[in-house]
Every structure is written in C-alpha cells, then in structure tokens.
Amino acid sequence: MVRKKSWLDRVGGMVAVAVLVGMTVVGCGTDDEASDEKQGGATDKPTTALPAGLVGTWYEIFNDMSMELYDNSTFLFVEEGEKIGKGNFTISGSRFTWTNTHISGAVFIHKGLSDFDPSMWYDKKGVASAVPNFPANDLDELFKTHYGTYNGNILSFNAPTHEGNLLTFTKSPETTPGTGQPASLIGSWVNDSGYVLILEPERFEMRAPSKKGAVKMIEGPYLTRASDSTLGLSPIRIHGDFLNTNPVFEPLMSAFKISCESKWYEPDELKTFFRYALGDYYQLTGFDVLIDALFASKDYKYVLSMYGNYLLLMEQDNPDVLYTRKP
What we know:
CATH superfamily of the largest domain: Uncharacterised protein family Atu4866
Largest sheet: 11 strands, antiparallel
Strand order of the largest sheet: 14-15-18-19-20-10-11-12-13-16-17
Shape: elongated
Radius of gyration: 25 Å
Mean pLDDT: 79
Structural class: alpha+beta
Number of domains: 2
Order of helices and strands: HEEEEEHEHHEEEEEEEEEEHHEHHHEEE
CATH architecture of the largest domain: Beta Barrel
Strand content: 25-35%
Number of helices: 9
Helix content: 10-25%
Low-confidence stretches: 1-8, 10-47, 175-182
C-alpha cells in the first residue's frame, strides 16, 4: 500500500521553511474555547437539521485519520492518535464544506518546535503571532475552506494539505478485525456509478451499469507495477451487450435497426460489423476513431487500503475513482 503524505508532514514542511530563514518561534496560542470531548470548532453554532447519519466519527480509509462531526456543525480532526485540527462545516445536498478555525500546538511539537504549547489550540492570528514571518500563503492554506461530497456512505474531498489527494472517509473503521483480507488487487470492485472492475490473476473485465443491470463491457490483460503503484488496463475485446445498452450507441443502433450479438468483439470484427451496418454513415462520422478509443490502453496510479477493502484509481487530468471490494 502506498501511504499518502500526511497533514503533519505538510505542516512540518512549511514550518521548516520558516526555521530555515531564521524566524524566532515564540510560544503563543489561544485558549481552548471548546471542549475537546464535546466540540470540534472554537465557536458554537445553532443546531441545524443535518442529514441522518452524518453526525459521528468518519474514518479515512488510506491513512490513520478520523474526522468527528458534531450536531452543532463543528468538527475535530484526529491523525495518528493526535488531535490536530478543528473548525466548522456546512452541508447542502451532497456538497460538504469545512474550514479549520484552529490547529493544535501538538502539530508543531510533532515537528520539534518545542516553544508551542501542545495543550493549546492556535487560530490564524495565534500562528502568525507565534511565527511573525510565517509565509502568508502557507498560513492561508492551513485555514482555507475545503469542498467535498457526501453521499450517505462516503465523505470525500481533495485537501491541498495532502498534496491534492482525495481523502475518503467511511463510518466503519477498516481496522475492525474480519472486515477485510490481506491486501490484494484480485477480486471484484464496484464504484458509486455502478461500474464493476473484475481483476483475475491475468485478466480484467469491466462491467457497465444499464437499465438491465450490470452488463459486460470490456476485457483483456492488465499489468501491475509495484515500484510506482501503476495499474495498466489493455482492452482487447468489447461486449455486444454494452453496445446495445450504452446511451451513446443505443440511439444510433435503434435508428439503423441493428444490434450486436451477445458476445465479445475484437476491434477488426467490430469495425467490420459497423462498416457493413452503417454504410456511408460509418465513414462520414469517423467511426473508426470512436472504436479505437474504446480499445485504448490506460494506466492508473492506484492505492489499496490496508485490509484490501478499498481501491482508489487515479488518472491524470481526471477525477479519482474509489472502488469498494464486492463480497
């Protein structure tokens, strides 16, 4: 498993810059306005109607981190057993927003800055007072507003303090005995959109959602490269059931009153089928290009969670996609 860079590491890096340019660190913090046992943020907010199931402890699936959400719309971050940040959150539909109001002095102590008080919380002014020449951009980064999504089962957001990685939280800690198996890519995985990725020892298969349920889509060999956590998928066949039910192909096939057989097609066979079925329309629309795109190989960076229950696939210039292992 490739562990993502932690918030503690990121904050430590920024503080190290401050030390290198000769800043004098003086202990200066703010009182802990809110009880750690009760509240995450420093300021109470009126209790609002929050979605059922949102309040409680959420566990990040790739790092030793949790986010406790309270019914007064405040939160507390805990990483590697340390309380590191707290603030306020809002939610509107599936849009989740959170903002740090305080950083624990323990975060700075963790990086060897002994003049900070580990029992105190530092707001933006407090950090600036403790380190007068703290880089303004880095200070803003610590206390900026973050945006993410909530779908009832998963809470996720990209956090610049984690080098832009997607942080993904669930209500069930994966360290619970019996919830997983030794980390392995082999198995069946499903994402929130209903796509199923099946990884066998030497073959992969992707199934796509449709009105008739999950249908076979593409299949072929794949490779994994542990040195840089790469998963490469190389489609060599596409299934007729996918083409018959896909929203892009279905209207065209309906208009021409054609359908594919329920079988696997290789590229040349598929081109021959459509060339004959569509006639001049095939050449006019550049259908060859569309079919070639369906068979294009793709490389993903992947992260497998500790107990093998979650698989995160990352593709350059595209959103990260989280897969959950199917029983």
